[in-house]
Amino acid sequence: MTERTGRRGHRAGEVAGEVMWPVLDVGSTPDAAPIGGSNVMAERTTHFRTCPLCEATCGLEVTMEGDAVVRIRGDRDDVFSHGFICPKGSTLRQLHEDPDRLRAPLVRRDGVHVEVTWDEAFAEVERRLLPVLDAHGREASAVYLGNPNVHNHALTIYGRALLMALGTPNIYSASTVDQMPRHASSGFLYGNGLAIPVPDLDRTDYLLMLGANPLESNGSLCTAPDFPGRLEAIQARGGRLVVVDPRRTKTAELADEHLVIRPGGDAAWLAALANVILTEGLVDLGDAAAHLDGVDALGPALAPFTPEAVEAATWIDPATTRRIARELAAAPTAAVYGRMGTNTVEFGTAASWLTDVVVALTGNLDRPGGLMWPHGVHAKPHTPGPGRGFRTGRTHTRVRGYPEVKGEFPVAALAEEITTPGEGQLRALITVAGNPARSCPDSTRMEAALADLDVLVCIDPYLNETTRHADVILPPPSPLARSHYDLAFYGLSVRNVANYSPAIVEPTGLREEDIIARLALVVSGQGAGADPQIVHAMVLDGVLGSAVGGDGPLAGRDPAELAAQLGDRSPADRVLEVMLRTGWAGDQFGAVDGGLNLELLEANPHGIDFGALTPQLPDVLRTVTGRVELAAEPLVADLARLAASLDRPTDGPVLIGRRHVRSNNSWMHNVEVLVKGKARCTLQVHPADADDWGLVDGGSASVTSAVGTVVAPVEVTDAVAPSVVSLPHGWGHGAQGTRMAVANAHAGVNSNVLTDGSIIDPLSGNAVLNGIPVTVVPA
Ligand SMILES: Nc1nc2c(c(=O)[nH]1)N[C@H]1C(S)=C(S)[C@@H](COP(=O)(O)OP(=O)(O)OC[C@H]3O[C@@H](n4cnc5c(=O)[nH]c(N)nc54)[C@H](O)[C@@H]3O)O[C@H]1N2
Ligand SMILES: Nc1nc2c(c(=O)[nH]1)N[C@H]1C(S)=C(S)[C@@H](COP(=O)(O)OP(=O)(O)OC[C@H]3O[C@@H](n4cnc5c(=O)[nH]c(N)nc54)[C@H](O)[C@@H]3O)O[C@H]1N2
Ligand code: SF4
Ligand SMILES: [Mo]
User: Fold this and answer.
1) Ligand 1 centroid vs 730 CA: distance in angstroms?
2) Which end of the chain is more exposed for a tag (fewer CB within 10 A), N or C?
3) DSSP sequence for 737-776
4) Residue range 418-428, pLDDT digits in tens
5) Would you state the torsion angle of the CA atoms of residues 424, 427, 431, 437, taken in this order, to the nearest 10 degrees?
């Protein structure tokens, strides 16, 4: 068997089998682990681990000779991915070996970054940061958490410790340039911003996908390794895939039908689908009916959104809208799934909400083949009954008064909070695994803001566009030098799965939880030399305390007794062990025979499959009523804004983004095998527009928005709709002071110079990254 990549992956039909309960599979554990000693013999060893790079959680088979990587390919025995990997999976080797990856901390001296010891680095943080906190207060500091935080359980577990130690209300993350609308709509609908239902890919008969391109992205808010194979399996079993996208993507090419939509039009179009279902008497609530509130209010609220009324705003003709609504209602099971294209727009929360409305009205909420809630095995059993509901706006940003959502402020507001003088002006920033200089809207302003800070501390493996402004950079270990467990994504997964990967090589520097712990001790005033064990004990006590509190199976047990049962592991893994043992599938520290613990996962290096998703209503709900609030007041109120947008003029080109399978946001362009070949950072332009604007393929165009201009190479293609131009994000390398030789030689241009930080989706605070009005002229 050869390595499976891309479209040669398995089909989902083979995946959707019986529940496979854990079997001790000692025979396939690594023959020897090189960890813990210099490998004089350079013995060949095989290791199985989960790829940490994207949400798909593919299993990798890593062959080592001593500390050197010999080969990485898909793990054919992985219970979830069955050998599938994409071209990025094997580049863990290149990331591990990358000479530009920082092995030691850097501090900036006279404008130049120089290597220092860890002790010197933390002393420098103390010297630079504490006076700023003392002079301006904790509210003058902020944290930005980037995307890799959710791909790294040490960061997921320890992030809170840093936030608490810093004591700042100013929390920003990549969530508000991404999926915050999904959290907000789930918050209002289900009372829980984390209760995000996913399309039950392996069992659905009809998938309506809007603004997602899993053939390049490998899926998002829907963890499904070999997403392409699972889509093909829908078709192979007689189902239908409809893709709604302004661009003919690879996913659109695979689809049975591709509908071209006007960028930003999804909320209006979904409202029209719901309108047709309601007015044509197609409503069938199915088993969820007993848990749904607000169905009667939807008819009047959505009345203005007839297929005719939304046609100009969506470019979709009314007959097609009616037909799709009828198809959804008639399908034995159907799921509607929206991602970046529906979230990072002005009506992101509305689109997320209306996705779920269409699903609920057709009886597809919480049933196999519809939208279902995963239940990560590390999560506690749901506690049935009403909850406290979902509130936003408990605090507001200083400059524009944007409400907090899920405890975060919109990252679109970060730059102005740094550059606008006055009480509460941000003077200190800590970034953890983020590159806001390339990922956030209005980069010109963001970079000016980063340069303007009194102090910037970054936990990051690269000297890149953001960290070049840093006073101190603290690099994490290589991806092979840490253990891995997908805490975040097993909660968004199309099957309930668990897979743990031990570290393969010894870290050369500090573990990431030690970096965070020491930073937390510095910012809480305990000194650069304080023992990180203080923080480790506190974090562990917290999770043990919550395990023995309440009325769960461990109620009343002694935390110290439980701690004594934990293995001799890294601090983050000890916390993970508690979570796994006290989760719904856990061994409850010996109380449940055969229950899950970390040893069992270690003995099953290809993972354990806990089966297909199961209905979760009403237990997943945390609304005050204990019911699904289909017509929650803030959501219905937002419809007036949506209705007012329907008559906006449609002339003039708009910019959208795109992803390519060989890229990963802004940070993997330093891997030669991923960037070689034809330049991918091009402005895609429809042939008719190219003629009108005097552009030629291979020429260059100047693109101007309300906030900036970039000059990009032109790619003429009818894959984009007329009046739509597309430029990928995450490029624009080559900045002075960075240390990324490969990326800087393949710089590309930064599309976020064009995105406008002053426009957000008000309910979620999410930035608008798609549908940006631009003018395009030959450069
Ligand atoms: N125009 C436009 N902008 C976009 C998007 C878009 O579609 N269009 N997409 C948005 C989305 S969905 C997202 S999620 C954001 C991403 O926004 P960010 O998270 O800010 O950006 P990334 O490019 O993912 O940068 C990740 C950073 O983490 C570092 N890193 C990688 N691994 C680790 C690690 O293990 N530990 C630590 N400490 N650091 C690590 C990398 O070196 C890099 O600096 O970008 C958003 N920006
Ligand atoms: N290769 C690769 N994989 C990735 C990443 C990456 O950068 N590269 N990033 C990861 C991250 S952080 C995320 S969040 C996910 C994102 O995962 P996806 O959302 O699947 O990725 P995108 O390619 O951004 O897909 C968005 C699609 O929306 C379309 N679109 C733009 N505007 C609109 C609109 O108004 N309406 C509709 N209906 N469609 C629109 C675009 O043409 C594009 O095809 O990918 C993850 N995986
Ligand atoms: S699809 Fe995602 S998880 Fe799978 S190999 Fe590629 S980057 Fe890794
Ligand atoms: Mo993302």
Assistant:
1) 8
2) N
3) T---HHHHHT----GGGTS-TT-EETTTTEE--SSEE-EE
4) 999 999 999 99
5) 100
- d(CA 405, CA 185) in angstroms, rounded, equals 11
Does this model's pTM top 0.90? My answer is: yes
Query: Which DSSP string do the residues of 393-420 spell out, in sequence order?
Result: -SSB-TTT-PBPBTTB--GGGHHHHHHS
> Residues 6 or more apart from 207 whose CB is under 8 A from it?
199, 201, 231, 234, 239, 240, 241, 242, 334, 335, 336, 337
- Residue closest by Cα to atom 36 of ligand 1: 433
Q: Contact, 86 vs 460, CB < 8 A? A: no
User: Ligand 2 test: best mutation among 220, 262, 266, most atoms within 8 Å of CB?
Assistant: 220
Determine the Cα angle at 451 with ends 446 and 453, to 5°: 95
Q: What is the DSSP letter of 193?
A: T
Pocket test for ligand 2, best of 86, 149, 213 (most atoms within 8 A of CB): 213
Among 165, 171, 766, residue whose Cα is nearest residue 432: 171
The rounded Å distance from CA 26 to ligand 3 centre is 26
For residue 70, give the 3-state DSSP assignment: strand
Q: Name which of 546, 164, 697, 616 is nearest 365 in CA terms.
A: 616
Nearest to 334 by CA among 281, 373, 291, 372: 372
CA 56 to ligand 3: nearest atom:
3
Q: How far is the CA of 257 from the centre of ligand 2 (A)?
A: 19
pLDDT for residue 651: 76
Cα–ligand 4 centroid distance for 6 (angstroms): 21
- Give distance in angstroms: CA of 178 to centre of ligand 4: 5
**What stretch of H or E contains 448?**
helix 443-452
Neighbouring CB atoms inside 10 A of 285's CB total 17
Which of 269, 659, 675, 755 has most ligand 2 atoms within 8 Å of CB, for mutation? 659
Q: What ligand 1 atom has the least distance to the C-alpha of 466? A: 44
CA–CA gap between residue 355 and residue 201 (Å, rounded): 16
- pLDDT, tens digit (0-9, with 9 covering 90-100), for 99-134: 999 999 999 999 999 999 999 999 999 999 999 999
Contact 479, 95 (CB under 8 A): yes
